[in-house]
Design a protein that fits this description.
Chain B: GO terms for molecular function: ATP binding. The complex is a heterodimer of chains A (298) and B (279). Helices cover 71% and strands 1% of the residues of chain A. Chain A is mainly α. Chain B has helices at 39-47, 82-90, 122-132, 137-151, 166-178, 196-211, 223-229, 247-253, 268-278; strands at 20-34, 53-67, 71-76, 97-103, 106-109, 184-188, 215-219, 232-237, 240-245. The chains are: A mainly alpha (298), B alpha/beta (279).
Chain lengths: 298, 279
């Protein structure tokens, strides 16, 4: 027989620890290999046994895009914004990323219940992996967006604009991860939660300035409370930021002062801070409620 | 970290003594029983002054310590809290009161069949499962052939495990668990589904695990395998420790000895027989 395990693993210098202890979301960095396997599995599983497979990731947003484009751009003649389609699509990339993350994150513990009930692991990885899968699915949409911008022949991208788009993406990443994390546990405690989330996600695309210009809000409400309410949603800032990067740089006749709030950058960074705090809060909520998850997963 | 080795007992043991592997200290676990599921039913039940929910103590003030390398049989009737205790030790659940501490890497199986994804193939599940148990890609690759040979699912290795027979499913789960380079091995009536040759193979493997100095903690109802494999018996009775100590005494305590179908222990063959049929 080889050496006893206690010698081989140097157990004398290993501490006694609670077997369920994890460092929460930070485990995502420590257990990258496991996370990679989980992401790969979810990419496979999301469209398992479906004929179109990954194509559904594009069919859905495309149909939605044309619906919005037709209703808002043509019927309601919101198309008087220059390059309205890009204005809309740039926003939709982020909104779609957000809804996909929150949706699949909310369901993540339930869909993985076989593993959750039987194996000890940092369960934060499930909603986090869902977020990464959604992020993966935005890549082709970003390519389409870039092609559309080039198509206009008037696209003049600048570094500041790309920075704005990146900031918008980061806000959505943090915001959707926080919500996915919290909602995944809520959904185990109370299955109604998934439906409540679904309802909100259906309303969400209409509350951010992508089917209509930002100027419409200010023209109608000035900078009064309805304006503040719309802008209290981090997603609104994120959408404006990505429009700054992709849409505005394709236009020749849209004045910056009309299309964006004067304090867009300040708002963006404040929302970034808010989302960081929210993520810490979500982790706290998750850690507190997680203990009851395995027994409620039936 | 060396000085913090024993947060529970302030006096560190002399170095000659084996290390503590598992500490279970005043552990309780409570489950909620909810009788009504919807708002309407809850409201109606409240009106009728019926109970809406109740709690139930699956484990109550359980305490014991396990030195490294000991193998323990956890015994008791169905519903006495054995699986709950195993889940607490493996870290799947957290205790409501008290604390559980373990040293080193834990592997094993809780309930039959591991946490597998139905759509993934056997091969993919081995990698996924090994990763959850803390093995790296290289480690899994190095051990893959052993794992596959032990599970012996043949050409089904590359089909989704959803198509497996329950025996194959259990075999694959067990195979991954026993190949993890762990310090604590927990097993929960794992061998209930496998066929006889596989059970024999499992017993052999579990003996190897025991001999390599891994702490073993396993749930069983088979007296003969307990005699052969274990140094200590813990009996749970409605969530409390009813007995903790010597193997023969423990089996007597449970009256598992005086049943008619119990074979003579001195007779190795019939003990094997029992292993194969009863585990």
């Amino acid at each position: 027989m080889a050496d006893k395990v206690s010698v081989r693993h140097d157990l004398e210098h290993t501490a006694l620890t609670p077997p369920s202890a994890t460092s929460g979301l930070l485990e995502a960095f420590r257990r990258r290999y496991l996370l990679r396997l989980m992401v790969r599995r979810e990419i496979q599983a999301r469209y398992a046994r479906s004929l179109f497979g990954l194509a559904w990731s594009y069919i859905n947003p495309t149909v939605r895009f044309f619906t919005f484009y037709f209703v808002f751009g043509i019927l309601l003649a919101r198309g008087n914004i220059q390059n309205f389609a890009i204005h809309l699509f740039a926003g939709m990339v982020l909104v779609h990323y957000f809804t996909e993350t929150v949706n699949s994150g909310t369901k993540s513990l339930l869909t993985n219940k076989g593993v959750v009930q039987k194996m000890a692991m940092p369960r934060e990885l499930f909603p986090f992996a869902s977020m990464l899968v959604s992020l993966y699915h935005t890549i082709p949409q970003m390519i389409i967006l870039t092609i559309a911008c080039l198509w206009t022949r008037t696209w003049d991208p600048d570094l500041v604009g790309m920075g704005a788009a990146l900031l918008g993406f980061t806000i959505v990443l943090l915001f959707s991860t926080s919500l996915g994390l919290m909602f995944s546990v809520f959904n185990v405690l109370l299955r109604d939660f998934g439906r409540i989330v679904q309802t909100f996600l259906n309303v969400l695309p209409f509350t951010v300035p992508m089917m209509y210009p930002y100027s419409m809000i200010t023209e109608r409400f000035g900078t009064g409370w309805p304006h503040d309410l719309v802008m209290a949603n981090p997603l609104a800032e994120a959408v404006l930021l990505i429009q700054r990067g992709f849409w505005w740089t394709t236009t020749t006749s849209e004045p910056y002062s009309k299309s964006f709030p004067p304090d867009l950058w300040q708002r963006g960074f404040i929302m970034l801070g808010v989302c960081v705090v929210l993520l810490a809060f979500a982790q706290w909520v998750f850690s507190r409620l997680e203990a009851r998850v395995p027994e409620l997963l039936i | 970290m060396t000085t913090l080795d024993h947060p529970v007992s302030p006096a560190a043991p002399p170095p000659a003594e084996p290390l503590t592997s598992i500490v279970v200290d005043g552990v309780s676990k409570e489950f909620a029983l909810q009788y009504q599921r919807t708002l309407k039913k809850i409201a109606l039940a409240k009106l009728r002054k019926q109970k809406v929910k109740d709690t139930f103590l699956a484990l109550e003030d359980v305490s014991f310590k396990v030195p490294q390398g000991q193998s323990i049989a956890l015994m008791g009737l169905n519903g006495s809290g054995k699986s709950t205790l195993l889940k607490l030790i493996s870290g799947v659940m957290k205790p409501d009161a008290g604390q559980v501490l373990t040293r080193g890497r834990i592997s094993g199986l809780i309930a039959t069949g591991a946490g597998f994804h139905q759509q993934l193939t056997g091969r993919e599940n081995i990698f996924m499962n090994a990763a959850i148990l803390g093995m790296s890609k290289e480690e899994t690759e190095a051990k893959f052939d052993d794992i596959a040979a032990f599970a012996d699912v043949g050409r089904f290795m590359d089909t989704p495990v959803g198509n497996y027979s329950s025996g194959m499913f259990a075999r694959l789960g067990f195979s991954v668990a026993v190949h993890v380079d762990c310090d604590i091995f927990v097993a929960d009536e794992v061998l209930a589904v496998g066929d006889r040759p596989f059970k024999k193979k499992c017993m052999k493997r579990m003996e190897e695990i025991r001999e390599s100095g891994i702490t073993m903690f396993y749930v069983t109802h088979a007296a003969a395998s307990v005699r052969r494999m274990c140094d200590r018996v813990i009996v749970l009775e409605s969530g409390k420790v009813g007995y903790d100590g010597d193997v023969d005494e423990g089996i007597k305590y449970l009256h598992y000895d005086d049943s008619d179908d119990e074979p003579d222990v001195a007779d190795e063959d019939s003990a094997d027989e029992e292993l194969a049929s009863d585990i």
